[in-house]
Write the structure tokens for this entry.
Amino acid sequence: MRNLLSVLTVVWIWIVLCSSAGAQGPPPAKVVVDQVVEEVVASTQSVLGVLYYERKSEISTDVSGLVQEVTVVQGDRVKKDEVLVRLDTEILEREISLTQTRLQQIDLRIENARKDYERLAKIFESEGVSEKIYDDALFDYENAVKEKQATEDTLAKLLIQKRRSVISAPFDGVVLSKDVDTGGWAQQGRRLLTIGASSSLHARAPVSEDLLKFVAIGEEMEVIINAFDREVKGRLVNIDPIADVKTKNVFLKINIPYQPLVAENMSATVYVSASPKRKLSIFKRAAVVKHQGGDFIYTVKDDKAAIMPITIIAYLGDRVGVDNTSIVPGMAVVVEGNERLRPDQPVKVAGE
């Protein structure tokens, strides 16, 4: 009997403790809030574009030869004047050495012809030799001088060929394609590499012609590299002068900073101005949460999380603009800790 009473007492205490814990509930979720502000901005429309390099160079050579070394691979980033390909110059260096030796021989011939000519010129003045002998001596001297000039031109050409046997990058860029390997034969004019300039990475995005009145050259635009969900700032640099015949779409060219691991023809989402500027409620993009396929934010009401639907009108980098009348300037929205919140969940704002 005594053992039964002891067991009942323990059970009663356990029930009381559980009831007390249940009454207290879990502690409030800690959140960070930020305030809504009002700004005059244009609404935006997202369009799908592609990435490409506006400035590309197909690297070739005007010197045929055996490829001694290729210093880069596809995807490498290179600096201006960085060595990309070296051709074997062993035979070329032999020709250069032979030509330099010929120049030395010609110098000896010129010196000898000059002495003969000057000696015969003195004798010719006293009519000691015929005019033909004098003319032949002059011809030999002048011909040797011309031969030296021609050989010097040949040597200069060979030195240019040697210099061009080392192929360097024409600008800072990224290797888009590699069409040659060590041990291969480089033919004159054949493409060896293709390089895209780092500074010329663009997004090409189609927009309907009725949106052109809302954009301006030099305008900043938000661009998202879809493969990495990476946001970057771009600048509209040009508008293609020819519209698509069927769709009437016009292509915008937006320059963006160089992006690592980005491949040409990757997709990018561009947010384009799509209306006149008007007053919108602006807050940090971190406040937006997805719920049942829609966009929502959490605000704090009576120390509890209150969820509110929103309609995003403009994407402004790390901020968004909405036109919901219920979202007013000065309202506190949750920007940290919202990913695990539930409606009516108790919250505690950090710092309070």
Summary: The chain has three helices and 24 strands. The longest strand covers residues 44-53. The chain has a mean pLDDT of 88.
